[in-house]
## 1
Amino acid sequence: MNPDNKQANNPLHGIKLQTIVEYLVDNYGWKNMAKEINVNCFKNDPSIKSSLKFLRKTPWAREKVEQLYLDLIDRKS
């Protein structure tokens, strides 16, 4: 396998988690994000910093955030 093509089919390749969270906040807002993904970091005193800390430690929540991002990108294209 060519190492350059390793991530060729990954639509999230090269996109930072912070960029994803900021994009979702801009498009949904914290309240709607909390409705979509029921986690405290989106409900109680939300911030980018606290969300990133939680998502980096919690793979299932990060996967949901990434899927929400991909769904939003698909709807906009």
## 2
Amino acid sequence: MAKEKTPVTPAVRELREAKVIFTDHLYPYEEKGGTATSARELGVDEHTVVKTLIMEDERKNPLIVLMHGDRQVSTRELARQMGARSITPCTPEVAQKHSGYLVGGTSPFGAKKKMPVYLEATILDLPGIYLNGGKRGYLVGLDPKELIRLLQPALVSVAV
């Protein structure tokens, strides 16, 4: 069986252009499988798989939240830390419109729209992370400090 070719997505292009050292991890995508599925398929701790969530504030301004796969985002606490009135997750259609990626394949790199990024601070404590490479069934492994260099995120503590 031929090895599946690594996808060249806007995320991969951005990582290559920034000279980020990353590893490719393809796996069989499962609809609504989330980070539990990708962690199982890769044989890694779900805590090291970082999900990319597209949300909006009360004015419908989009933002990206990066969170551990095994945790949820306290939108109330995120709004408080941002100084917003409220934060809500986008519908899949709206998230795709903002990011240019299908839900389940959303990457913080190479998004269609420039959006502010909020990073759960404890992600930086990990020696390595896996996050979406811009296609369903495809994660990239990298040093979490690269998130700071490329995305210049605001650090938050909103995991529950």
## 3
Amino acid sequence: MKVGYIQTNPIFGEKEQNFNEIEKLIANLKGDLIVLPELFATGYTFISKEEAVSLAEKINGKTSQFLLKIAKNTGAVIIGGFVEKEGNKIYNSALIVSNKGVIDTYRKIHL
């Protein structure tokens, strides 16, 4: 099994720019499992809960769709962190996807 990872310095709140950076970096990467940074799509410098809520998304949101796209393009299982929204709560979560769909989500408990 080949495991790869990508480390980036995401632009806070700029999901599309961060997605584009990941796509460029992953273009020639070969692996069975590729791990992206925690909160790779939004960055991690929230100054308030409201700011985090404004960038949160449901499990089938924009970040999930992006991860599914790169899983299909690479054939790899992809793990990427995102701000998950469920009801009135938000979580620092990691989404695990393959070219067949979402495998699971992990919600971080501690910083």
## 4
Amino acid sequence: MALRRGIEGRESEPLVHKLYGDSFEDTNLEALLAERGVGRLVVTGAQTDACIRSTMHGGFTRGYDVTLVSDAHTTEDLSEYGAPSPDKVIAHTNLYWDWQSAPGRRGGAVPTAEVDFQADTDADE
């Protein structure tokens, strides 16, 4: 399943159209994940400081484990408006998300080479 713009997908893959930063907001994403028994999200994409953060928090507060792929998200340079440079936004988001946890769920940040798509059977430990 993908939230994609300009990326070819398979006919069998659902496409979620979103209008807000949080991919769960006013979409059918949560229903699609529930139908498939998904308990963990693996997040990549753009805009680190907007859509990525919003979607990770949206999923986390809805009870999902959320893994951020640390070298597979990006943002534009908004430093002229007072924001940190993109490399710092990305580094801070990776650091912050790597330490997220709550009862029965956890966050994490891993590089692409370490992404594991296998079901996590010890998530409650």
